[in-house]
Fold Flavin reductase.
Amino acid sequence: MTERLPVDLAKAYRLLNHGPTVLVGSAHAGRRNVMAAAWSMPLDFSPPKVAVVIDRNTLTRELVDASGEFSLNVPARTIARETLFVGSVSGRDADKFADGTGVSAFAGSHVAAPLIDGCLAWLECRVIPEPHNQDRYDLFLGEVVAAWADPRAFRDGHWQSPPGAGHEWRSLHYIAGGNFFETGDAFEVKPAPESDVNS
Amino acid sequence: MTERLPVDLAKAYRLLNHGPTVLVGSAHAGRRNVMAAAWSMPLDFSPPKVAVVIDRNTLTRELVDASGEFSLNVPARTIARETLFVGSVSGRDADKFADGTGVSAFAGSHVAAPLIDGCLAWLECRVIPEPHNQDRYDLFLGEVVAAWADPRAFRDGHWQSPPGAGHEWRSLHYIAGGNFFETGDAFEVKPAPESDVNS
């Protein structure tokens, strides 16, 4: 059972701010899909917006074009294998929700796109129609209409793992060829006194 | 002295694929600046393109608008303090290249925007003019016209730290409020036999 609590929309950008690889969920007319995407980023704070590249040859693209919706899911290291799998095969050739190899999903609150179990955070998004970006660059902009996180990983607007937490609470950063970085240790930088000026 | 070797442009996306926080360098008519940006991503493989959010109120924006060029620099953990500094103050209020608090820079090969010492990799970019994106979303697209990396961190198209390397070779992932993640350990996922299908 995936644990989740709502995330204040004004803090939703923090779920993506550190640049994790995400899973893009999509659904339309009884079909659903999920793919991995290393190319996404926050685009605005409030209302929160995101940008993500969705290749024109993917089933995900077909479903997002048809539905105007998608989910961004931040996978934990524990589903790195599944992340690679859903990023390596097309939903036209394989059932990415099959027992054993694929992922399982649960329903969002605002969009029909599936949310993926085993993730640390979830963003439900509506496409901001920008046909030129979509056609020319495979670039999609979306408004985040709901956001969720596993409170064991992110709560009160901050990433914070349980004391003594292991690597299962770390997110993923895809490199290439099946290689990932996991998210490393957090640390705080104290500004030097000289830099204490208003920005 | 910053060590650097050229990166094959077809592999340049890998310098950003894992979602590091970057420094955006800019210059025009004798003025130069650098700011931190957590919101950037690769946009295409070949020719390599990138996307980055550059707020309309920044000096960086003024210089990028005027020059049509910028650099993206991937800072190492060793310059986390400087990264926070150049991301916290405006180039209109402080000299970000001042001795002691700021960064030092060297010249690129294709653009006038400064490249920043203490980084692991550098991308020289020309703006792909998309006025609607720039005006409405502060979103800039750029073509990567040259790329470089410190061969101790990235060589032969792959991130690879020296044996026994410490945290000084890790990149940064900004969270908020002066908090960063460093890039964690790399690991390889071997696809399950069932997933050995063409994508």
Observations:
- The CA atoms of residues 113 and 161 of chain B lie 27 Å apart.
- The first helix of chain B runs from residue 59 to 67.
- Chain B touches chain A through 62 residues (CB under 8 Å).
